[in-house]
Specification:
- This protein is 71% helix and 0% strand.
- With 106 residues, it is mainly α.
- It has one domain.
- Helix 1 runs antiparallel to helix 3.
- The longest helix has 34 residues.
- The protein is elongated and about 60 Å long.
- The N and C termini lie far apart (59 Å).
Length: 106
């Protein structure tokens, strides 16, 4: 068990959310376009939505008495990875669409 707050329901919510957030961060950096799954690259643009929904659930389940939050040393970079990877992916897809439009116009 990664996180233990002496409540089995909260433990389950916190641990599942924590693992899922880190998994979404790992999925955000997978180069789906290079692996031949272009549809997954577009689908990966939606990764911030479930990530931040899980972040909200995670923070709501965290007891308020915890002053030292060592979990944030992993979660905050995971949030940043999801946002930055999504930004780069969106820019790459936009650039690809522009090239596609430019080649069809000529």
């Amino acid at each position: 068990m990664l996180i233990n707050v002496d409540d089995p329901v909260r433990n389950a919510i916190l641990n599942v959310s924590f693992v899922a957030i880190v998994a979404f961060a790992a999925l955000a950096v997978v180069p789906w376009g290079f692996l031949g799954a272009r549809g997954m690259s577009r689908l990966a643009l939606w990764l911030p939505l479930p990530t931040f929904l899980l972040a909200f659930i995670y923070e709501a389940a965290m007891p308020s008495g915890y002053d030292i939050r060592l979990d944030l040393f992993l979660l905050l970079p995971a949030y940043a990875v999801v946002l930055i990877a999504t930004l780069f992916r969106a820019l790459a897809l936009r650039r690809a669409r522009r090239r596609q439009i430019d080649t069809h116009a000529v």
